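Researcher: Sequence recovery benchmark, item below. Answer with residues only.
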């Protein structure tokens, strides 16, 4: 039995798998293919529920209409001459009834070789059982794909979290909530596109491999291009390329993009993640606040049918007009409990940061110290939607300075559920100011800050041609989906999160 030998060489077969393989070999000996490609269905399971979910037994019997469906066997109860099982496709599941008297002895014996997890095709008519359950009565049956491994036991499911993430294909089969999460994710991305398209934005694509990474403060992943003999970096953000498009006359652009940041992994961070970034010429950061409220509210309504969303025991109200707007320094005082005489004094601010257990880098500017206090004392308390705006210039190298106070920028971050959801600002379009900010970042990088910006001469050159005043924003799609699906971990909303290799 070559199939058995092949699998034995790859895997230590337990008794269940061995039995399945032997059964499969028997089917092959009988001339029955295990993986045919000639079965065609005419109906998905949800269509049956949509059309006949409320139809009476009498009307079903009078109809006599025959349907052909296909899916995976996810439950199985045999009573000798009759068998009930549930068939599951991408749209749902339905009970199927198979009887020897309907299929004939030979076909029924073939059917009895079916295992949980097999993919089968069934042709039949609908009826209702004595309990009233809509059921497909089998008149024809075909094995479509043989499953060599058993599904997890019905009542315990797939409990090991790492197995769920590592074997996502199995998780999707046995965990209905997982499938629902990714249906919502798809709806969220689709609605974001629809919203921006309707507002006149154009979707574009920018490079994932860049010679100079920029657009965010993050440590990049490095790679290498052999033909060009040059180091490249995986994109940490598309920002500087999208703003080059503003220079070129594309006044409203967006990209739903994959970003890569060589940093820690947590329930809120994955090294590879999805962002929406969009840029709007002749707008400012306050215009983006209004747009963001409208966008989040609409996405929630379209995906969930409500703007009040449950998340980890809290009800998050995304209704337009219910969002709080608070200046950064004011939030340190009102939310964090840090008086102005502390957060405005370098030595006192530094001492408080150390007291809270945070590391202070030699020469770190006041704005960075204030940001560390914010992360510790303010961010975890921002449960309902909060726009925190007017961030220190020290920590906003790409933001436009406030015209009344050059020590702060016209920037906001959106927080809810105690985490950042979006970052936005009125864009810096003065090439002299931008060059100076880059030079400061270079000094910080040389001093040991791995997340500081590189100098990007071409971007400065682009600004020298003239970029219109504009506002731009990044939205973390993974975190937005976490909110809308009540998921505590980012790994729940990424189909294949990064994991360490399996230990053999």
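Model:
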């Amino acid at each position: 039995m070559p199939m058995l030998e092949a699998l034995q060489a790859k895997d230590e077969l337990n008794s269940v798998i061995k039995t399945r393989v032997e059964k499969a070999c028997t089917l092959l000996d009988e001339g029955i293919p295990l993986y045919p490609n000639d079965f065609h269905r005419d109906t998905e399971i949800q269509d049956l529920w949509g059309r006949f979910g409320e139809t009476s037994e009498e009307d079903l019997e009078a109809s006599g209409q025959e349907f052909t469906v296909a899916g995976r066997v996810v439950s199985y109860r045999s009573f000798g001459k009759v068998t009930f099982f549930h068939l599951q496709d991408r749209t749902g599941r339905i009970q199927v009834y198979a009887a020897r008297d309907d299929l004939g002895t030979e076909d029924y014996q073939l059917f009895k070789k079916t295992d949980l997890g097999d993919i089968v095709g069934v042709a039949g008519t609908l009826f209702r059982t004595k309990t009233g359950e809509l059921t497909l009565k089998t008149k024809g049956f075909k094995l479509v794909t043989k499953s060599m491994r058993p599904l997890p036991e019905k009542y315990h499911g797939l409990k090991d979290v790492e197995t769920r993430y590592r074997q996502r294909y199995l998780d999707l089969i046995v965990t209905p909530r997982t499938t629902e999460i990714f249906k919502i994710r798809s709806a969220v991305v689709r609605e974001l596109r629809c919203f921006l398209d309707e507002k006149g934005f154009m979707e574009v694509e920018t490079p994932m491999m860049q010679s100079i990474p920029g657009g965010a403060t993050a440590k990049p992943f490095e790679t290498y291009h052999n033909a060009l003999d040059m180091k490249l970096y995986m994109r940490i953000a598309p920002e500087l390329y999208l703003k080059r498009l503003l220079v070129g006359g594309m006044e409203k652009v967006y990209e739903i993009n994959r970003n890569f940041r060589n940093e820690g992994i947590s329930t809120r961070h994955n090294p590879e993640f999805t962002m929406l970034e969009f840029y709007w010429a002749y707008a400012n950061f306050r215009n983006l606040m209004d747009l963001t409220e409208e966008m989040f509210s609409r996405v929630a309504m379209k995906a969930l049918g409500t703007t009040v969303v449950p998340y980890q025991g809290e009800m998050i109200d995304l209704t337009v007009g219910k969002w709080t707007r608070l200046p950064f320094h004011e939030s340190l005082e009102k939310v964090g409990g840090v008086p102005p005489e502390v957060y405005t004094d370098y030595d006192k601010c530094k001492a408080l940061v150390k007291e809270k257990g945070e590391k202070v880098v030699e020469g770190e500017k006041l704005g960075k110290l204030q940001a560390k206090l914010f992360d510790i004392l303010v961010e975890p308390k921002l449960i309902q939607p909060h726009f925190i705006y007017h961030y220190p210039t020290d920590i906003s190298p790409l933001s436009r300075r406030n015209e009344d106070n050059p020590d702060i920028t016209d920037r906001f971050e959106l927080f809810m559920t105690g985490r950042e959801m979006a970052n936005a600002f009125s864009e810096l379009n003065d090439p002299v100011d931008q060059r100076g900010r880059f030079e400061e970042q270079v000094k910080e990088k040389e001093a040991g800050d791995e997340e500081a910006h590189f100098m990007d001469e071409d971007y400065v050159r682009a600004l020298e041609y003239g970029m219109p005043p504009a506002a731009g924003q990044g939205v973390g799609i993974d975190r937005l989906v976490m909110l809308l699906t009540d998921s505590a971990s980012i790994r729940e909303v990424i189909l294949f999160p990064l994991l360490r290799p399996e230990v053999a």
